[in-house]
Amino acid sequence: MGREAIPGELLREIASEMTGSRVLFSEPMANHTSFRIGGPCDLLVLPNSPSAAVCAWRLCHEVSVPCTIVGNGTNLLVKDGGVRGCVIKIAPGMSGIDRSGEDRLLARAGTPLNSLVNASLENELSGLEFAVGIPGSAGGAVAMNAGAYNGAFGSLVERVQVATLGGDILWLAGRGLDFSYRHSIFLFRDDLLILQVELLLSAGDKEGIRQVMQAHAAERQRKQPLDKPSAGSAFRRPPGRYVGAMLESLGLKGFSYGGAQVSPKHAGFIVNTGTATATDVLTLMEIVKEKVYQAFGVMLEPEIMVMGDDPVDADSPAGT
Predict the structure, then answer these.
(1) Residue 9 catalytic?
(2) Rounded to the nearest 5°, which phi and psi values hold at 247?
(3) First to last CA, the chain
(4) Residue 155 and residue 158: Cα distance in Å, rounded?
(5) Is there a catalytic annotation at residue 233?
(6) Number of Cβ within a 10 Å radius of residue 118
């Protein structure tokens, strides 16, 4: 996205329509990502309801203000120059879970995944055990087809409710959403806004479900660097390979650039040691990619979503 300034009157027009919702100008995105990294966005909207989110989203398109949708920011790296236009954070105001029939749960897009996992346990519904400990929101899990332990969110999606720019609210069948490894149609469709997802689960034994969840949670605690800010796995898993194992074999565990570090606990994660910038993370990722390619002939692809602008050089005309 370019650095062209967005007219302030357009941003204020959008903000003025958000009665009851929280709006923040020049808000550091570091406050809204699990990486704790990111420059300011021009306008951040935290809608207090699905209708408010739809209103902000459609208004941005009507007045040609760039609009970015984020969830809980757990798989996201925002560049140090920040994000131009409006960022809509689908979070607490769009959270909620209902039972939908004997074997279904209906979750609003902003519902934390851990809340959805807990609801499946309480309702004695099996299928979401793999999602224990996965951060993020239900909407983000749909868009990215979140997964772990040979399970994937998309395999459970019965249907998704979306808003369209044309003014409709529709239900889309899960089978038509092109789910594959960390992929769905929503990654490439800025004309659809996820509002709710209905999951098809199966009846199960509560204690049995609990035991599987506890085992997965313990394994995450043992293997993953949960004590430092990160955005989850840094790279997509190549066919037949494990990223962490390749990096460990190259002696890259603990390798750092600036405040960014390949986790000493799990080499598949890049962590913020406390002072990392987005530039640090991206530079480290490029170093890692080059070393892996030279050693294995494998070109790693980022799993982390990257958005925003590079910082403006203070010595350049654009920075004056």
Answers:
(1) no
(2) -65, -40
(3) 20
(4) 8
(5) yes
(6) 15
In a 10 Å sphere around its CB, with 0-12 CB exposed, 13-18 middle and 19+ buried, how is residue 108 labelled? Answer: buried
Please answer whether residues 47 and 18 qualify as being in contact, where contact means their C-beta atoms are separated by less than 8 angstroms.
yes
This prediction's pTM: 0.91
For residue 175, the Cα-to-chain-centroid distance in whole angstroms is 22
Amino acid symbol at 153 = F
What contacts 24+ positions apart, CB below 8 Å, involve 1-6?
A: 1/66, 1/83, 1/84, 1/85, 1/307, 1/308, 1/309, 2/84, 2/309, 3/81, 3/84, 3/309, 3/312, 3/318, 4/84, 5/84, 6/42, 6/65, 6/66, 6/84, 6/85
Mean pLDDT score of the chain: 93
Tokens of 6: 């967005």
Vertex 56 angle, CA 15 and 145, to 5°: 135
In this predicted model, what pLDDT tens digit does every residue of 134-190 receive, in sequence order?
888 999 999 999 988 888 999 999 999 999 999 999 999 999 999 998 899 999 898
Of the candidates 34, 120, 184, 233, the residue annotated as catalytic is: 233
- List, for residues 39-85, the tens digit of each pLDDT value: 999 999 999 999 999 999 999 999 999 999 999 899 999 999 999 99
Q: What's the pLDDT tens digit per position in 22-48?
A: 999 999 999 999 999 999 999 999 999
SS3 label, residue 137? strand
Lookup: tokens for 307:
């958005």
- Look at residues 102, 125, 103, 147 and name the one whose alpha carbon lies nearest to residue 210: 125
pLDDT reported for residue 313 = 67
CB-count burial class (<10 Å; 0-12, 13-18, 19+) for 110: buried
Is-catalytic flag, 182? yes
Tokens of 14: 């959008």
Query: Which structure tokens are listed for 20?
Result: 């009851």
Catalytic residue, from 84, 108, 159, 182: name it: 182
